[in-house]
Design brief:
- By secondary structure, the protein is α/β, with parallel strands linked by helices.
- Among the domains are: about 390-600, 3-Layer(aba) Sandwich (Rossmann fold), CATH 3.40.50; about 645-760, Immunoglobulin-like, CATH 2.60.40.10.
- Helix content is about 30%, strand content about 15%.
- Helix 7 (about 140-155) packs parallel to helix 8 (about 185-200) and helix 12 crosses helix 13.
- It is globular.
- The relative contact order is 0.10.
- Bound molecules: 1-deoxynojirimycin (NOJ).
- 1-deoxynojirimycin binds next to loops.
């Protein structure tokens, strides 16, 4: 405590001195900057560089193994005031221990900011972000982030490395599970909801945490979907597809950014001054700080961009990176680099200032232990309310992909059901890949969820194992491709049952960081099992659990009912059971296109027409297509069924012409034509027919979720104005261009009504 007190006294003395000698700052509007500068003035160059240094803690590891002797070095640096942040330190006791070193043992007692990957919950897990995006329910998503912040902050954490707002069109990329899918508009709204959820109204509130928009930028466009791979995209894609969710996060007030592992157009993101200085800190005016990704500064050597670690540190800071995660390069070389004039001291000052500012905003200078309340940790962790909210969003995230002859919902009594599949009984895999703080085996399994409906008779047969051993976060999953034990028993169990629920998909560790796949089929022996079961019983409900779109053509053709249940977190099995039994009528819509095969990837709804678009009945070969598969996906973006049905009619526009100052109201009548109460996401798409840069065949521009009783109708209205039509033009400006547009309103990107209007002077 001594050092903290000393810091506070010196700080107030400086406040007085500062008031006498410096130009007088506006004490109200600029008091934060003034405080930050007051601390900064006390700091040596080494201490400022120390603020720019982030170390992994001594427990969990979320990247390549730490260097030998790292722990001793880290303690030494902590005590010397050479660490500004730690990640992967969690739990009040542990956080308190490291914070105590920073506050009580260092010269100035500057508190640490404690980061953690709170991606979809802390210990009480919600659905993986891709699944939550399928809910299209922004309030539920915001609430989910708010709850994650609540639980994480009670465990001593005050900074999450989320949301990941990378757009991706490539299901091979394992990290699609961590994002909001392929669309920049939906992705932007979700980015905003998540940032607001984590950060709340007031960062100094102990139940909110700092958010981090990542990975800046282009990470989701890795060539061939292979994680960390090269990214080469043009200005149009960068500005119109990749940037929008980052812009939304910035506007929502996100306080930190993470740059990314990939190179973008030849320059690694961590050393990319265009991205960090020109765009983010320049054009967008971002005044928080940028952390590098795990050793991404050091990795610029392997990229062939920096000649050694020292050069990497120079390039990173000159390009605008403020804090280094785990590469040790800043702490090792920055002082030398400044003394040699290779890095301007003003860059170091600026970085330290940004970091200190966020620490002030969190209120860490007032009370460094404000997130370290053991009683709160005990009360909040795994609370009933958190589980209730997790169940709520888990149900909303499920997407009904097929339901022939209304096989679903299931009757609640009198059925003989076979439940088949290794995943059905798995209490760990539904927690997904980002579950560092959650205990193994804490998810409700599908089997448990189904068994809570006690009036049906369930026979369970796991079939062959999906993964061998006990998959972990840091190791490759070994998929079982040969051990068929359990096969026969599964087939036997399926015979003569009223219905077979097959729970198939990917292990939770088959998606996530470094978990790309080159094929999108059901892994291991699952397809074979599905076909074998089908031979004895066709009444199959397929419950898919996966972290990415899968190519499930055979199932789509043959299996009567399919639900997409992703990895839904702690309440997974309850959510699935409630949907299967109709206690929740599915309302999710796909945030990402499902391909027919991996060769179609990247496949996305907002594609360009090309000069030789697909013809309905082509009589020659010269158009953009494949010989062996159609251009259309298996399930399009925005697709998702309900147990009821909806009809769309009477699309009307209030005017046919729009000016830059007027607006048009587009309306449509939606009717629940089925037997159940249901929710529908009514989607608005627009096509700009001619542009200074070619425009996509359609782009999502709005949506509204409505609830309808059987027989009920609602008129849904969207207001279209010129702002909605803006894009990054060939003149490198965000502008709406005059011309003709088509508006589509419907139930998915592939099924809608259409009308036309124009934008003119
Ligand atoms: C690497 C990942 O790319 C990043 O998203 C994550 O936040 C860090 N590791 C820390 O775990």
């Amino acid at each position: 405590m001594m050092n903290l007190c000393r810091l506070v006294i010196v700080f107030f003395m400086l406040l007085i001195v500062g008031c006498q000698t410096d130009p007088v700052p506006d004490p109200i509007s600029d008091s934060l900057n003034f405080k930050v500068d007051s601390v900064l003035r006390l700091m040596t160059l080494e201490e400022k560089i120390g603020q720019m240094n982030q170390y992994n803690g001594f427990w969990n590891v979320t990247g390549p193994s730490p260097k030998k002797g790292a722990a001793q070095l880290k303690y030494k640096h902590l005590e010397a005031g050479l660490v500004g942040s730690m990640l992967n330190v969690r739990g009040v006791e542990n956080v308190k221990a490291v914070q105590k070193i920073a506050v009580e043992k260092t010269r100035l007692g500057i508190p640490l900011i404690i980061g953690f990957d709170v991606i979809h919950g802390y210990k009480t897990l919600t659905p993986i972000p891709l699944a939550e995006a399928a809910s299209w329910d922004l309030d539920a998503i915001k609430n989910s982030a708010k709850n994650a912040a609540l639980e994480a902050s009670a465990a001593g954490i005050n900074w999450t490395f989320a949301p990941m707002v990378d757009i991706s069109r490539d299901a091979r990329w394992g990290r699609v599970m961590e994002g909001a899918g392929e669309d920049p508009y939906l992705g932007s709204l979700i980015a905003k909801a998540r940032v607001q959820g984590f950060q709340g109204e007031d960062l100094s509130d102990a139940i909110t945490i700092v958010a981090c928009a990542k990975h800046f930028a282009g990470y989701g466009f890795a060539e061939a979907g292979r994680d960390y791979n090269t990214v080469d995209v043009g200005m149009s894609t960068l500005y119109n597809i990749i940037f929008p969710p980052f812009i939304a996060a910035t506007k929502a007030g996100v306080r930190t950014y993470m740059n990314s592992f990939n190179e973008l157009n030849g320059i690694p993101a961590t050393g990319n001054a265009f991205l960090q200085r020109e765009v983010l800190k320049g054009a967008w005016g971002f005044d928080g700080f940028i952390v590098s990704d795990w050793d991404s500064a050091g990795e610029m050597v392997a990229h062939g961009y920096a000649k050694d670690d020292k050069h990497a540190a120079e390039l990173a800071v000159n390009a605008g990176s403020d804090m280094d995660m785990e590469s040790y390069t800043f702490v090792t070389y920055m002082k030398e680099l400044v003394e040699e004039g290779k890095v301007k001291e003003s860059y170091v000052n600026d970085a330290a200032r940004r970091i200190l500012k966020v620490k002030f905003e969190l209120g860490l200078f007032d009370n460094p232990y404000k997130y370290c309340d053991v009683n709160r940790e005990r009360e909040v962790t795994g609370s009933e309310e958190l589980h209730k909210a997790s169940l709520d969003i888990a149900k909303k995230s499920i997407v009904l992909l097929k339901n022939e002859n209304q096989l679903l919902p299931l009757k609640k009594e009198g059925l003989n059901i076979a439940v088949i599949g290794d995943l059905a009984n798995d209490k760990t895999s539904p927690l997904g890949s980002w579950r560092i703080a959650a205990e193994d085996k804490t998810a409700i399994s599908v089997l448990e969820g189904l068994k809570s409906y006690e009036k049906n008779n369930i026979t369970f047969a796991p079939g062959p194992k999906l993964a061998l051993g006990n998959p972990t976060f840091t190791q490759e999953v070994q998929v079982n491709t040969s051990d068929k034990s359990g096969f026969k028993e599964a087939v036997r169990a399926a015979k003569n049952k009223d219905v077979v629920i097959m729970v198939l998909g990917e292990h939770g560790f088959q998606s996530g960081e470094a978990r790309s796949r080159s094929n999108l089929k059901l892994p291991g022996l699952q397809q074979e099992l599905l076909e074998a079961v089908y031979k004895v019983n066709k009444n199959i409900v397929l419950v898919l659990m996966n972290g990415r779109p899968l190519a499930i053509n055979w199932a789509d053709k043959n299996v009567p009912s399919i639900i997409e249940a992703w990895q839904l977190g702690s309440q997974s099995g309850n959510a699935i059971a409630q949907v299967l039994y109709g206690d929740y009528n599915p309302s999710g819509k796909l945030p990402m296109t499902f391909p027919k095969n991996v060769g179609q990837v990247p496949i996305y709804y907002n594609y360009k027409n090309t000069g030789r678009p697909l013809k309905e009945n082509p009589n020659d070969v010269f158009h953009s297509h494949y010989q062996d598969v159609s251009n259309s996906p298996l399930y399009p973006f925005g697709y998702g069924l309900s147990y009821t049905s909806f009809s769309y009619k009477d699309l009307e526009l209030s005017a046919k012409t729009l000016t830059k100052d007027s607006s048009i109201v587009a309306s449509v009548t939606v009717t629940n034509t089925g037997k159940y109460f249901g929710k529908e996401v009514v989607q608005l798409y627009i096509r700009d027919l001619v542009g200074s840069r070619t425009r996509p065949v359609k782009e999502l521009k709005g949506f509204e979720m409505i609830s309808l009783n059987p027989g009920e109708s609602k008129v849904v209205q969207f207001t279209i104005d010129a702002k909605m039509l803006q894009f990054y033009t060939a003149q490198n400006k965000w502008e709406a261009e005059f011309g003709d547009f088509t508006v589509f309103i419907g139930e998915s990107s592939a099924k809608s009504l259409e009308a036309n209007f124009s934008l003119s002077k």
